[in-house]
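Hello again,

I reread your note about wanting to compare the complex against the isolated chains. To keep things tidy I'm splitting this into two emails, and this first one only covers the full assembly. Below are the input lines as submitted, including protein chains and any nucleic acid or small-molecule components. They are followed by the predicted structure of everything together. The single-chain runs will come separately.
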Amino acid sequence: MSIFVGESTRLVVQGITGRDGSFHTRQMMEYGTPVVAGVTPGKGGQHFEGPDGKKVPIFNTVEDAVQKAGANTSVIYVPPAFAAGAVLEAAGAGIEFIVCITEGVPVQEMTRGLAYVRDRGSRLLGPNCPGIISPGKAKVGILPAQIVAPGPVGVISRSGTLTYEAVVQLTDAGIGQTTCIGIGGDPLIGTNFVDALEAFKEDPETEAIVMIGEIGGTDEQEAADWVKANLEIPVVGFIAGQTAPPGRRMGHAGAIISGSAGTAEEKIRSFEEAGIAVAKRPVEIAELMKDALGI
Amino acid sequence: MNIHEYQAKEVFRKAGIPVPPGGVAETPEQAEAIARELGGRVVVKAQVHSGGRGKAGGVKLASTPEEAKAHASAILGMDIKGLTVEKVLVTPAEEIATEAYVGCLVDRAAQSVTFMVSSEGGVDIEEVAHTTPEAIKKLTIDPRYGLLPHEAYWLASALYDDPPLVKQTARIISQLYDAFVMAGASMAEINPLITTPDGEVKAIDAKMSIDDSELFRRPDIAAFRDLSAEPISETKAREADLSYVKLDGNVGCCVNGAGLAMATMDLVKYYGGEPANFLDIGGSSSPEKVVAALEIITSDPNVKVILFNIFGGITRCDDVANGIVTAIKQIDIDVPIVIRLTGTNEDEGVRILEEAGMKAATSMDTVVEQAVALANQA
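Full-complex prediction:
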């Protein structure tokens, strides 16, 4: 099994005709993800040319993509100024699972956007995230497909390339994944560690979890408390940013130590107190996971 | 992006918040002239992106224009927590009856904007939150509605009993929220908000941080950026669309992705080195970006070795390799470069490097260890 995406995914790509949108749509289709529609306002009625001559209908609105093509999942590759609007449109059209790849979405717009998504009963992943991949089933976003393999481990991460680092090590060590999720590097995100952990807990095929966090906020600490209280399967963790100075944004908008809060040390401590095996270096993630799985 | 007190006060004034007048001076003479025009006692305040200005001696009371000049002369050029004071704000000294704290910020846990007020004003709010959390009243607003009038009134009532003071403060709290929205802020605070013996409520200090993602559509706010408050290398990096933070070590780091860049810095430290910088060249990196990154890293005289850590996803290894080869031809690099290149188009990237007489490894630990050893030898 997998979480959030899988056999029933019917994907609409918002911003399908843009540079990033078209490139990644082809990659997702090559992986076998059912892309049923694209949305670019003003280009409704046209078609997107996918690999092997496959054609994807383009609509002006997400509403049309839902009504006419049966889309239930959306991925957003539109510029920052329009990304929050795209999230609202998807939720308004009844999309169940929305993935926002775009980086640089104004945070104040997200406060309202997240409330709307919740009110509509949708789930948002991101913004500023690499998306989600269920090896062998579906890929929604930009995670490189060649490094994943099906297997028993769920991966949750705030970072993109650091996730690749961890996943490639797991795969090389013969440990596959149920689903890999990049939850995003922004201060306000739709799906946090606890949300992803809850979903993995319900997935019988997920036997262990990798959690990759970083400085900023308290999401990791809350996740550690949740793991301690609710989870019986092993968790391996890693926290980036031990050498980051306070008060400076380290690339991700959310990766900032505010005052004395959100340091790597306090996150590592909460992980350890919750019985999470913490890797000191990325290369130890696969080693610790081998121990956890007894292989 | 942090903005200065005098800039935040401009935003506050536009929102209607009562803020005392004042002027910004870059020389002692200008400070004297502003003090003379204002008349009476004035306060000379260092304009730097740092808290604790008072403790550092960056805030001084002056009874005469001559004294204001003398204070400005002492404060301008002063070093406060590593930042040089380039400007002072000269503003009238207010009669203070009481001091309070009023602030709002993007609350990550609540996924909304949270207001905080405390009758313990004029002190570090983090300190108050730590020692006497019960002295702070909090209210998280519903982003569907914004701050509602009765909520502003409730917050103001937590500070004062006297109805005219409550009324004025409630208005200021609403105006602070307007300023916060108008500027695209992630934090805005008035510390202290004062009452005068005549029963007036005023903001005598102002602090604001702006969400970087808002700047593209707010040119007036973007113009507040103070280039003197950051190293030249950081300005250049922003112009080249690179995410860069200068640090004090000697291992120059060039990485794709923020998380991997932080993990690389941590690994440098793990192997006994010190990172010279954080640098994320971002996704879909063109060779030009790599050249810009190398120019910025090599402009730091502390750098003894350059470490590339590239895990190609969207970023293509051949683009990065082409960038490195081009940069070496264009700029004079006299420190060793160690490269880790893996992922998308790895073979092509490695071939490009080898043709130029360079090597690449696939393991992150190998190159970091090697880079630290080279830096420590130098």
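For quick reference: Chain A touches chain B through 61 residues (CB under 8 Å).

B.
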